[in-house]
Description:
The chain is of the alpha/beta class. The model has no long low-confidence stretch (mean pLDDT 92). The chain has one domain (2-198): Peptidyl-tRNA hydrolase (Rossmann fold, 3-Layer(aba) Sandwich), CATH 3.40.50.1470. Strand 2 (44-46) and strand 3 form a beta hairpin. The chain has seven helices and seven strands, in the order βαβββααββαβααα.
Amino acid sequence: MSYIIVGLGNPGEEYEDTRHNMGRIVLENMRKIFSKDADFSDWEFDKKLRALFSEGKVAKQKIMLIEPDNYMNNSGGSVKPLITSKKKAEELIVIHDDLDLPIGKYKITFNRGSGGHKGVESIIKNIKTEGFVRFRMGISPVTPSGKLKKPSGEEAVTKMIMGKFKESEMAEIKKMSKRLAEATEMMIAEGRDKAMSLFSC
């Protein structure tokens, strides 16, 4: 069994630390956490995948971390060569931003639609199944009372997701990344259902 974990985002310095690059940010954090227990290879570029990849072991299982070097809506092209069956798709974890969740919250889901996320749509289209795990990471701010401040309208959404995280938000993301690294270890060692039932925020 060999798991593949994909962090969605856009390549290029202008997109670093932006909300839409949540998947990449979390994947980088998780790689550092995993590397404390097992060495992961340096990031390398694979021309066929058009993606950066790093390999190591988690819970004694081989893991490949992937950062597509395509823009978000072409992410599936980097995943398609690796996911050759529906069974293999069940060993795929996709990490991405989610406007419907506040900063500091995440959901782990399996076999769900894209929810309008272009990167997830691209993956579903390319591997021809929704049967994979998603780590949905909240990126929307909240009011002082805790109400979600989700933007309305395409222009407002674009402005928000392309905005950079505050330092306090990045600190919150690091905490979530640690939890998701633990969830990943449990998913690999003890199964998807147990991990999904115990890790929800």
